[in-house]
Design goal:
homodimer, alpha/beta, five-stranded parallel β-sheet, five-stranded mixed β-sheet, 19% strand, elongated
């Protein structure tokens, strides 16, 4: 049996199955630095420690050892299926009959890096910036469409000392299709153990320290930064209960006692900004806890501060939500029963205002 | 301390750090079925086992327990950052000061499912088909651009008993932009332990048995199936040594003794198909071991059979490669020193012929 085993980027990521397979193996084939993570469980085994670049030799060696009846473990960092050796392995193994082989999945850099940054992921693209074997035009096309589709993007192998061109192209392409203020997370593993992470804006990415042990995570148009964490909201509502003042407001609303549009007679007008539509003076989504709107919690008060959110006060948003409510929401209870449709409508209209507000601030602590 | 812990989709995926954190915890909060995987390491702890859907309640409970000075472990399947609870968790936790929290990454379904299918991944998009909180138009846009960018695509949460529309839209959108013969892998976890996988063609995807425990992996335009495994080649060359007959051919080639274009006088003409360009009678990339060309190994003979590959015999490919060789390859040695540029050129021209050959067979065993 040949087992191609992913061990993540640190000792602590190794899975129980990976440990079992390594312990059971007679022979271990690994790029040298990976051995450090498993030193204590490979004593007494045949060790074949090789440098980078001779992938073919490693697979052929594994086959040879397997033919001798040995259990062979080939060690890969991260997950073997994502820019690991799994692909080449299957291309070659197919030469032979009666070979037993398997892939043991591992923790890949996108998830590990995300965990160091906060919660930046939602629908995402994982793209390698290595153009050693992939034409640069192919990489560029992938980045372009990931950006247009507004996927979160994780870049692997972003840059080496000699290979800098794809990174230049990536920065340029992203700035062409994305907001330059978009939060970007940069996670580097140092000496295979320590994790260093930083967050910057897309327009600043080009000048950050980045190497081959770095993973870069580019936010989508909803990603924001709060208290040093990079967060991409998925659209949940954080409470099911509307606050009392909001309830009172919507009782009036359903009785037709609310003024539609701008209410410049109000003693607080303009409370957020001077061109607002006051129809939803009390937001039906309060507290959304969604920093992509510009709002943030007032720490330890359980109060959501929407001062910087103007989304629900834009004419085009009010029109869309009002149309939906008139058609579908007849009472307070309907805010609950129609909750998911309302949340989707909310998300769709936020998307539209994102396109309008190209200079929104996604860094809430600034 | 609150630890949000990903345990993958099976017991065997749990990482060493996850085990440590679970063992250290005073209180465990988990969706009920996940507890089975960790039963042996949670004895004697406070267990809060809750159903799906009350994510908010779980986070608030965790905060409450943490404030009492307890170590809390919230258990998530897969990775907490990919459609897990990490995003909501950060949205709420931000309410409080002095809370310690961390995310422990896990093995996500894309990598785990890929390992069951073979090696289908390269640059990829991960997209959830759940439209509970995400507007269907947003999902559709993401699928469209992932398809145009030719990313491998992993679909999470593809379909439930009541939620089938996004899956319909996904199938339709993919068929609009991708070859209907594209290999698709379908991996379902049954009872949280057993893994069932199957491979079909994109045009057959719509009628496959699929549920919420299924992950779907859509190949890119180079993905092929051989011996029941789904493989996406990354562009490596599997040998560095050219075979002897090939060497002899290229000696003649460099002496100008090779006929450019169709050689219908050859006794073997047409050896593959009747419109071929014979310039590269011996392929400079032999044996490429790349099934996306239609070639395959003759098992146990170490012979690569290119009978079904016509890529290197297409006029437009010959022109491009010939131009490069005339400019850059002056001797046999240059095949090695220029290897990476040649492989990139190869990949770029294969891409172009993929666009031409919309009905290529990617299922090599058929």
């Amino acid at each position: 049996m040949i087992s191609l085993i992913g061990i993540g980027s640190k000792r602590e990521h190794i899975t129980l199955k990976a440990v079992d397979r390594i312990k059971e193996a007679d022979a271990i084939i690994a790029y040298r630095p990976y051995l450090e993570h498993i030193q204590d469980i490979i004593e007494g085994k045949e060790i074949y420690s090789r440098g980078m670049g001779d992938e073919m030799a490693r697979v052929e060696l594994a086959v040879e050892l397997e033919k001798e009846g040995k259990k062979v473990a080939i060690i890969s960092s991260g997950d073997p299926g994502i820019y690991g050796m799994a692909n080449v392995y299957f291309q070659i193994i197919d030469k032979y009959s009666n070979l037993e082989f398997e892939v043991i999945p591992g923790v890949t850099a996108a998830t590990y890096s995300a965990s160091a940054l906060g919660a930046p992921l939602h629908d995402l693209a994982i793209i390698s910036l290595s153009n050693l074997l992939t034409p640069l035009e192919e990489i560029e096309r992938k980045i372009k469409h990931a950006a247009i589709g507004d996927l979160v993007i994780a870049f692997y192998n972003p840059k080496s000392k000699t290979r800098t061109e794809p990174f230049e192209v990536a920065c340029k392409t992203l700035l062409e299709y994305k907001n330059p203020e978009t939060p970007v997370g940069i996670v580097t593993t140092v000496d295979g153990t320590e994790t260093v992470s930083r967050i910057c804006k897309l327009k600043e990415l080009h000048d950050q320290p980045i190497d081959m042990n770095t993973t870069i995570i580019i936010g989508n148009s909803m990603t924001y930064v709060r208290k040093g964490k990079m967060i991409t909201p998925r659209g949940y509502k954080v409470t099911t209960q509307l606050p009392e003042l909001t309830e009172q407001f919507y009782e009036k609303f359903f009785n037709g006692d609310i003024q539609i549009g701008k209410n410049s007679d109000c003693e607080y007008f303009p409370c957020h900004n001077d061109q607002e539509n006051c129809t939803f003076c009390y937001c039906p989504f309060y507290p959304c806890a969604d920093g992509s709107t510009g709002g943030k919690w007032i720490t330890d008060k359980n109060v959501w501060n929407c001062k910087n959110c103007n989304w629900i006060h834009k004419d085009e948003v009010v029109d869309e939500i009002l149309d939906y409510i008139k058609e579908n929401v007849k009472s307070m209870d309907d805010f609950d029963t129609k909750k998911k449709d309302l949340l989707k409508l909310r998300r769709a209209t936020i998307y539209k205002t994102k396109d309008l507000d190209f200079n929104r601030n996604y860094f809430l602590d600034e």
